[in-house]
Amino acid sequence: MQAILKIFTLKRSYILSALIILILVIFNFYGPYTGKFYFFKLDNYIFPVLTLVHIVYLYVLWFKIKEDELTDPQMRNLEYALYVISIVYVYKACESIYVLTTYSEYEDHLLPSAFLLIGISLVVLHLIFLGLTLLTFRYRKHRVGDYKFNDMDHIDSWE
After folding, report:
1. Which end of the chain is more exposed for a tag (fewer CB within 10 A), N or C?
2. Contact criterion met (CB below 8 Å) for 57 and 79
3. Average pLDDT of the chain?
4. Pairwise CA distance, residues 116 & 119, whole Å
5. What are the DSSP calls for the chain, one per residue?
6. What's the rounded Cα separation, in Å, for the pair 35 and 54?
7. Distance from the first to the final alpha carbon of the chain
């Protein structure tokens, strides 16, 4: 684990996450079976919208570390939302693996020449992105701190 932390420092993780988000958002509109981009399908916009939460989380984490601030309930809620969004990231990774494994089924059909190259690249990018997301959570815990709030934040005004 220490070797991974030396390779993927916080700064490198930020840069790599931003770069991978950009690439994955662009290729989210790409149809691997046809080799065309589909900008008019509404379901292609789900992933880019969800990555906005990831970008905001990266910014908040960067700001907290830069200003040497502690966690707050808003950051906690943002991270919890990112936990749910990570399920979509896992789904996208599995979907990319599925598309790549169907190559032999459609071998007799006319597939784009870049099918395997783009398919393998997308699988690798999705898996790296999942790993970077988990690594970001670890950096938050070690650099910013746990989500411990004093009792004043949990007072129920209805009592």
Report:
1. C
2. yes
3. 87
4. 5
5. -HHHHHHS-HHHHHHHHHHHHHHHHHHHTEETTTTEE--S-GGGGHHHHHHHHHHHHHHHHHHHHHTTPPP-HHHHHHHHHHHHHHHHHHHHHHHHHHHHHTTTTTTTS---TTHHHHHHHHHHHHHHHHHHHHHHHHHIIIII------GGGG--TT-
6. 28
7. 47
